[in-house]
Design a protein that fits this description.
Its EC number is 5.3.3.2. Belongs to the IPP isomerase type 1 family. Pfam families: NUDIX. Catalyzes the 1,3-allylic rearrangement of the homoallylic substrate isopentenyl (IPP) to its highly electrophilic allylic isomer, dimethylallyl diphosphate (DMAPP). Keywords: Chlorophyll biosynthesis, Isomerase, Isoprene biosynthesis. This protein is an alpha+beta fold and 307 residues long. The strands form 3 sheets. The chain has a 5-stranded mixed sheet with strand order 6-3-8-7-10, with helices on both faces. A 3-stranded antiparallel sheet has the order 5-4-9. Strands 1-2 form a two-stranded antiparallel sheet. Strand 7 and strand 8 form a beta hairpin. It is globular.
Length: 307
Protein backbone atom coordinates (compact mmCIF):
# COMPACT_ATOMS: atom_id res chain seq x y z
CA UNK A 1 0.00 0.00 0.00
CA UNK A 2 1.68 3.30 -1.05
CA UNK A 3 1.91 6.14 1.43
CA UNK A 4 -0.21 9.17 0.71
CA UNK A 5 1.87 12.22 -0.09
CA UNK A 6 0.64 14.68 2.46
CA UNK A 7 2.30 17.95 3.32
CA UNK A 8 2.34 18.22 7.10
CA UNK A 9 4.17 21.11 8.79
CA UNK A 10 6.56 20.31 11.60
CA UNK A 11 5.14 21.27 14.95
CA UNK A 12 7.02 22.73 17.86
CA UNK A 13 5.30 22.15 21.17
CA UNK A 14 6.42 23.95 24.30
CA UNK A 15 4.62 22.85 27.41
CA UNK A 16 5.76 23.51 30.95
CA UNK A 17 5.24 20.56 33.24
CA UNK A 18 5.75 21.11 36.97
CA UNK A 19 8.04 18.61 38.63
CA UNK A 20 8.97 17.93 42.21
CA UNK A 21 12.08 20.08 41.84
CA UNK A 22 10.13 22.99 40.32
CA UNK A 23 11.97 22.55 37.04
CA UNK A 24 10.39 22.65 33.60
CA UNK A 25 10.38 19.98 30.90
CA UNK A 26 10.10 20.98 27.26
CA UNK A 27 9.07 18.87 24.30
CA UNK A 28 11.17 19.30 21.19
CA UNK A 29 10.02 19.35 17.54
CA UNK A 30 7.90 16.44 16.40
CA UNK A 31 7.01 14.92 13.07
CA UNK A 32 4.06 12.53 12.73
CA UNK A 33 5.33 8.93 12.49
CA UNK A 34 4.98 7.04 9.24
CA UNK A 35 2.06 4.96 10.48
CA UNK A 36 -0.03 8.07 11.14
CA UNK A 37 0.15 9.00 7.44
CA UNK A 38 -1.46 5.75 6.38
CA UNK A 39 -5.10 5.30 5.52
CA UNK A 40 -7.37 4.19 8.37
CA UNK A 41 -8.48 0.55 8.69
CA UNK A 42 -10.24 -0.63 5.54
CA UNK A 43 -12.93 -2.56 7.38
CA UNK A 44 -15.79 -0.63 8.92
CA UNK A 45 -15.33 -0.35 12.67
CA UNK A 46 -17.38 0.94 15.54
CA UNK A 47 -16.82 4.64 16.17
CA UNK A 48 -15.54 5.58 19.63
CA UNK A 49 -18.36 6.42 21.98
CA UNK A 50 -18.91 9.87 23.44
CA UNK A 51 -17.86 8.49 26.82
CA UNK A 52 -14.59 7.23 25.36
CA UNK A 53 -13.90 10.57 23.69
CA UNK A 54 -14.59 12.40 26.93
CA UNK A 55 -12.38 10.07 28.93
CA UNK A 56 -9.62 10.36 26.33
CA UNK A 57 -9.62 14.16 26.42
CA UNK A 58 -9.98 14.45 30.18
CA UNK A 59 -7.07 12.07 30.71
CA UNK A 60 -4.73 14.56 29.09
CA UNK A 61 -4.72 16.50 32.36
CA UNK A 62 -4.28 13.44 34.56
CA UNK A 63 -1.13 12.94 36.64
CA UNK A 64 -0.10 10.01 34.42
CA UNK A 65 -0.18 12.14 31.26
CA UNK A 66 3.42 12.76 30.24
CA UNK A 67 4.22 14.86 27.19
CA UNK A 68 7.90 14.25 27.79
CA UNK A 69 9.43 12.24 30.58
CA UNK A 70 12.34 13.71 32.47
CA UNK A 71 13.91 10.26 32.60
CA UNK A 72 13.56 9.74 28.87
CA UNK A 73 14.84 13.17 27.97
CA UNK A 74 17.63 12.94 30.49
CA UNK A 75 18.84 9.66 28.99
CA UNK A 76 18.70 10.94 25.43
CA UNK A 77 22.43 11.61 25.25
CA UNK A 78 23.20 8.22 26.78
CA UNK A 79 21.23 6.48 24.02
CA UNK A 80 22.70 8.51 21.19
CA UNK A 81 23.99 5.29 19.61
CA UNK A 82 20.48 3.82 19.30
CA UNK A 83 19.26 3.12 15.78
CA UNK A 84 17.55 6.24 14.43
CA UNK A 85 14.26 4.55 13.55
CA UNK A 86 14.01 2.69 16.86
CA UNK A 87 14.99 5.83 18.76
CA UNK A 88 12.21 7.83 17.09
CA UNK A 89 9.63 5.19 17.95
CA UNK A 90 10.90 4.98 21.53
CA UNK A 91 10.25 8.67 22.14
CA UNK A 92 7.21 9.28 19.91
CA UNK A 93 5.06 6.23 20.62
CA UNK A 94 2.81 6.52 23.69
CA UNK A 95 1.91 3.13 25.14
CA UNK A 96 -1.29 2.51 27.11
CA UNK A 97 -0.66 1.97 30.82
CA UNK A 98 -3.03 -0.49 32.51
CA UNK A 99 -3.45 -2.13 35.89
CA UNK A 100 -3.42 -5.91 36.35
CA UNK A 101 -7.15 -6.00 35.54
CA UNK A 102 -6.49 -4.31 32.18
CA UNK A 103 -8.06 -0.99 33.21
CA UNK A 104 -6.45 2.02 31.54
CA UNK A 105 -4.61 4.16 34.10
CA UNK A 106 -2.61 6.48 31.83
CA UNK A 107 0.08 6.43 29.20
CA UNK A 108 3.83 6.85 28.82
CA UNK A 109 6.53 6.71 26.18
CA UNK A 110 7.64 3.41 24.74
CA UNK A 111 11.09 4.31 26.10
CA UNK A 112 9.91 4.53 29.71
CA UNK A 113 7.67 1.48 29.43
CA UNK A 114 10.68 -0.68 28.55
CA UNK A 115 13.18 0.62 31.10
CA UNK A 116 13.54 -2.11 33.72
CA UNK A 117 14.40 0.54 36.32
CA UNK A 118 11.02 2.21 35.83
CA UNK A 119 9.17 -1.08 35.44
CA UNK A 120 10.46 -2.19 38.82
CA UNK A 121 10.23 1.18 40.60
CA UNK A 122 6.79 2.22 39.31
CA UNK A 123 5.35 -1.17 38.33
CA UNK A 124 4.70 0.18 34.83
CA UNK A 125 2.49 -2.27 32.94
CA UNK A 126 1.45 -1.58 29.35
CA UNK A 127 -1.00 -3.12 26.92
CA UNK A 128 0.40 -5.16 24.04
CA UNK A 129 -0.66 -7.68 21.40
CA UNK A 130 0.81 -10.73 19.70
CA UNK A 131 -0.47 -11.78 16.28
CA UNK A 132 -0.37 -15.42 15.15
CA UNK A 133 -1.02 -15.49 11.41
CA UNK A 134 -1.60 -18.83 9.65
CA UNK A 135 -1.81 -19.37 5.90
CA UNK A 136 -4.37 -21.62 4.20
CA UNK A 137 -2.04 -24.61 4.76
CA UNK A 138 -2.24 -23.83 8.50
CA UNK A 139 1.43 -22.91 8.68
CA UNK A 140 2.37 -20.24 11.21
CA UNK A 141 4.30 -17.16 10.05
CA UNK A 142 7.27 -16.39 12.30
CA UNK A 143 9.61 -13.42 12.23
CA UNK A 144 13.13 -12.83 13.47
CA UNK A 145 13.37 -9.40 15.07
CA UNK A 146 15.91 -7.04 13.52
CA UNK A 147 19.36 -6.51 15.01
CA UNK A 148 18.47 -2.87 15.74
CA UNK A 149 15.49 -3.65 18.01
CA UNK A 150 16.05 -2.25 21.49
CA UNK A 151 14.51 -5.24 23.25
CA UNK A 152 15.22 -8.85 22.25
CA UNK A 153 17.12 -8.20 18.98
CA UNK A 154 17.49 -11.14 16.57
CA UNK A 155 15.20 -13.47 18.52
CA UNK A 156 12.55 -15.51 16.69
CA UNK A 157 8.96 -14.86 17.63
CA UNK A 158 5.36 -15.01 16.43
CA UNK A 159 4.12 -13.10 13.40
CA UNK A 160 3.96 -9.62 14.94
CA UNK A 161 4.36 -8.29 18.48
CA UNK A 162 3.73 -4.66 19.36
CA UNK A 163 1.53 -2.20 21.27
CA UNK A 164 -1.72 -0.35 20.73
CA UNK A 165 -0.99 3.34 21.12
CA UNK A 166 -2.73 5.96 23.23
CA UNK A 167 -5.06 7.19 20.49
CA UNK A 168 -8.83 6.95 20.14
CA UNK A 169 -8.87 4.26 17.46
CA UNK A 170 -6.66 1.97 19.56
CA UNK A 171 -8.32 2.57 22.94
CA UNK A 172 -11.67 1.01 21.95
CA UNK A 173 -12.31 -1.85 24.40
CA UNK A 174 -15.41 -3.25 22.72
CA UNK A 175 -14.49 -6.68 21.28
CA UNK A 176 -10.80 -5.66 21.57
CA UNK A 177 -11.34 -3.41 18.55
CA UNK A 178 -8.59 -0.96 19.52
CA UNK A 179 -6.06 -3.77 19.76
CA UNK A 180 -7.22 -5.24 16.43
CA UNK A 181 -6.86 -1.82 14.77
CA UNK A 182 -3.30 -1.63 16.15
CA UNK A 183 -2.50 -5.12 14.87
CA UNK A 184 -3.55 -4.19 11.35
CA UNK A 185 -1.38 -1.06 11.53
CA UNK A 186 1.72 -2.90 12.73
CA UNK A 187 1.42 -5.78 10.26
CA UNK A 188 1.80 -3.14 7.56
CA UNK A 189 4.62 -1.32 9.37
CA UNK A 190 6.67 -4.43 10.17
CA UNK A 191 5.84 -6.92 7.44
CA UNK A 192 4.40 -4.79 4.65
CA UNK A 193 1.13 -6.74 4.78
CA UNK A 194 -1.57 -4.55 3.19
CA UNK A 195 -4.55 -3.67 5.36
CA UNK A 196 -6.93 -5.28 2.90
CA UNK A 197 -5.13 -8.61 3.42
CA UNK A 198 -5.88 -8.53 7.16
CA UNK A 199 -9.31 -6.95 7.79
CA UNK A 200 -9.75 -6.11 11.46
CA UNK A 201 -12.90 -8.24 11.69
CA UNK A 202 -10.87 -11.33 10.76
CA UNK A 203 -8.71 -11.24 13.90
CA UNK A 204 -9.90 -13.54 16.69
CA UNK A 205 -8.82 -12.47 20.21
CA UNK A 206 -8.23 -15.73 22.05
CA UNK A 207 -6.92 -14.62 25.42
CA UNK A 208 -4.73 -12.31 27.48
CA UNK A 209 -1.49 -12.98 29.33
CA UNK A 210 0.44 -10.88 31.83
CA UNK A 211 4.19 -11.41 32.03
CA UNK A 212 7.46 -9.66 32.88
CA UNK A 213 10.74 -10.40 31.11
CA UNK A 214 14.12 -8.59 31.22
CA UNK A 215 15.95 -8.28 27.91
CA UNK A 216 19.32 -7.12 29.25
CA UNK A 217 20.47 -5.03 32.19
CA UNK A 218 18.59 -1.93 31.05
CA UNK A 219 15.60 -2.97 28.94
CA UNK A 220 12.72 -5.39 29.34
CA UNK A 221 9.02 -6.06 29.00
CA UNK A 222 6.09 -5.90 31.40
CA UNK A 223 3.00 -6.43 29.31
CA UNK A 224 -0.64 -7.35 29.36
CA UNK A 225 -0.63 -9.09 26.02
CA UNK A 226 -3.66 -9.77 23.78
CA UNK A 227 -3.28 -12.95 21.70
CA UNK A 228 -4.80 -12.49 18.24
CA UNK A 229 -5.20 -15.35 15.73
CA UNK A 230 -5.95 -14.96 12.04
CA UNK A 231 -5.98 -17.33 9.05
CA UNK A 232 -5.21 -15.50 5.80
CA UNK A 233 -2.99 -15.84 2.75
CA UNK A 234 -1.13 -12.53 2.64
CA UNK A 235 1.51 -10.63 0.71
CA UNK A 236 4.59 -10.11 2.89
CA UNK A 237 7.27 -7.46 2.33
CA UNK A 238 9.31 -7.23 5.57
CA UNK A 239 10.59 -3.87 6.77
CA UNK A 240 14.34 -4.35 7.48
CA UNK A 241 14.19 -1.79 10.30
CA UNK A 242 11.87 -4.19 12.14
CA UNK A 243 12.40 -7.69 10.76
CA UNK A 244 15.59 -9.62 9.94
CA UNK A 245 13.95 -12.75 8.52
CA UNK A 246 10.63 -14.60 8.20
CA UNK A 247 9.52 -18.19 7.75
CA UNK A 248 6.34 -20.26 7.72
CA UNK A 249 6.47 -23.35 9.92
CA UNK A 250 4.22 -26.34 10.48
CA UNK A 251 3.92 -27.99 13.88
CA UNK A 252 6.90 -30.32 13.46
CA UNK A 253 9.12 -27.53 12.17
CA UNK A 254 8.19 -25.38 15.17
CA UNK A 255 8.99 -28.27 17.53
CA UNK A 256 12.42 -28.52 15.91
CA UNK A 257 12.96 -24.80 16.48
CA UNK A 258 12.03 -25.28 20.12
CA UNK A 259 14.54 -28.13 20.41
CA UNK A 260 17.32 -26.04 18.88
CA UNK A 261 16.53 -23.08 21.13
CA UNK A 262 16.57 -25.32 24.21
CA UNK A 263 19.90 -26.82 23.12
CA UNK A 264 21.39 -23.43 22.25
CA UNK A 265 22.17 -24.58 18.71
CA UNK A 266 23.41 -21.85 16.41
CA UNK A 267 22.59 -19.17 18.95
CA UNK A 268 18.88 -19.54 18.14
CA UNK A 269 16.66 -17.76 20.68
CA UNK A 270 12.91 -17.33 21.07
CA UNK A 271 11.14 -14.34 22.59
CA UNK A 272 9.90 -14.96 26.14
CA UNK A 273 6.27 -14.08 25.35
CA UNK A 274 6.24 -16.44 22.35
CA UNK A 275 7.68 -19.26 24.44
CA UNK A 276 5.04 -18.70 27.13
CA UNK A 277 2.26 -18.94 24.53
CA UNK A 278 3.85 -22.03 22.95
CA UNK A 279 4.23 -23.80 26.28
CA UNK A 280 0.75 -22.96 27.57
CA UNK A 281 -1.62 -22.62 24.61
CA UNK A 282 -0.36 -22.77 21.07
CA UNK A 283 -0.57 -26.41 20.06
CA UNK A 284 -4.09 -26.97 21.41
CA UNK A 285 -5.22 -23.73 19.74
CA UNK A 286 -3.57 -24.89 16.52
CA UNK A 287 -5.99 -27.84 16.58
CA UNK A 288 -8.91 -25.39 16.58
CA UNK A 289 -7.33 -23.41 13.73
CA UNK A 290 -7.22 -26.53 11.55
CA UNK A 291 -10.75 -27.58 12.50
CA UNK A 292 -12.21 -24.10 11.94
CA UNK A 293 -13.41 -23.95 15.55
CA UNK A 294 -11.10 -21.22 16.82
CA UNK A 295 -13.94 -19.27 18.44
CA UNK A 296 -14.48 -22.19 20.80
CA UNK A 297 -11.01 -21.63 22.27
CA UNK A 298 -11.54 -17.95 23.06
CA UNK A 299 -11.47 -16.84 26.70
CA UNK A 300 -11.20 -13.08 27.03
CA UNK A 301 -12.47 -12.99 30.62
CA UNK A 302 -9.35 -14.53 32.13
CA UNK A 303 -5.97 -12.78 32.39
CA UNK A 304 -3.33 -15.50 32.66
CA UNK A 305 -0.39 -14.41 34.85
CA UNK A 306 2.55 -16.33 33.46
CA UNK A 307 6.21 -16.49 34.45
Amino acid sequence: MPLARISIPRLFLLKSVPTSSSTTRLCSSWTPPRSQLLSPPTTTTTAPSLALRTAFLSSLSSPRHRLCSSTAMGDAAVDAGMDEVQRRLMFEDECILVDENDRVVGHDTKYNCHLMEKIEAENLLHRAFSVFLFNSKYELLLQQRSATKVTFPLVWTNTCCSHPLYRESELIDQNALGVRNAAQRKLLDELGIPAEDVPVDQFTPLGRILYKAPSDGKWGEHELDYLLFIVRDVNVHPNPDEVADIKYVNREELKELLRKADAGEGGLKLSPWFRLVVDNFLFKWWDHVEKGTIQEAADMKTIHKLT
